[in-house]
């Protein structure tokens, strides 16, 4: 399962089944369930009116425990203090652990297709600290370069090719942490 924002749920011409999350699941032979919506974050409820915690509660928590939950985001938590983002990330991970104590959790930091602003690095650091405290692998894409054809004309979201590159990176990052076809 993956909780995330527009990068996870799809945006513009990229459909949900074409996102990096779907590509990653295909590559690793996983059954994918996604939650979240464009504009959402740990603190930012976006247009749908719910944060990642709300997406977890409404879309995932009632389901059987997955082998792995990936929480991916922070991009939309601009204008929020990093401490507040970290606190919200901690509450989310605690809720996941309370509901599914045996589920492995991996946390992906904010994804930027272009150079990230300073505040995004601060959010990344806050989320990384929470992941470390929960002993969850933290996968950091913030300073990666994806290439010009990886960016939609909106200047924010990945193209279909950008999602493929994100998926390749995520598969490799997961494998570095011992997470692959057999999650356990």
Automatic annotation (TrEMBL):
UniProt cross-references to Pfam families, sorted A to Z: Lipase_GDSL_2 (PF13472)
Domain of life from the UniProt record: Bacteria
Domain SGNH hydrolase-type esterase: 2-163
InterPro entries: SGNH_hydro, SGNH_hydro_sf
Protein name: SGNH hydrolase-type esterase domain-containing protein
Organism ancestry: Bacteria, Bacillati, Actinomycetota, Actinomycetes, Streptosporangiales
């Amino acid at each position: 399962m993956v909780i995330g924002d527009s990068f996870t749920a799809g945006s513009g011409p990229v459909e949900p089944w074409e996102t990096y999350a779907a590509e990653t699941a295909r590559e690793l032979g996983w059954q994918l369930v996604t939650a979240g919506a464009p504009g959402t974050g740990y603190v930012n409820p976006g247009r749908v009116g719910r944060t990642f915690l709300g997406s977890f509660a409404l879309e995932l928590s009632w389901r059987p425990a997955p082998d792995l939950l990936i929480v991916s985001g922070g991009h939309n938590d601009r204008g929020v203090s990093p401490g507040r983002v970290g606190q919200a990330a901690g509450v989310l991970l605690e809720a996941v652990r309370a509901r599914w104590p045996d589920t492995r959790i991996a946390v992906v930091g904010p994804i930027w297709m272009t150079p990230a602003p300073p505040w995004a690095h601060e959010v990344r650091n806050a989320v990384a600290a929470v992941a470390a405290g929960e002993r969850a692998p933290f996968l950091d894409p913030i300073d990666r370069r994806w290439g010009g054809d990886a960016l939609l004309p909106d200047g924010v979201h990945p193209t279909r090719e950008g999602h493929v590159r994100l998926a390749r990176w995520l598969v490799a990052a997961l494998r570095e942490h011992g997470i692959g076809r057999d999650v356990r």
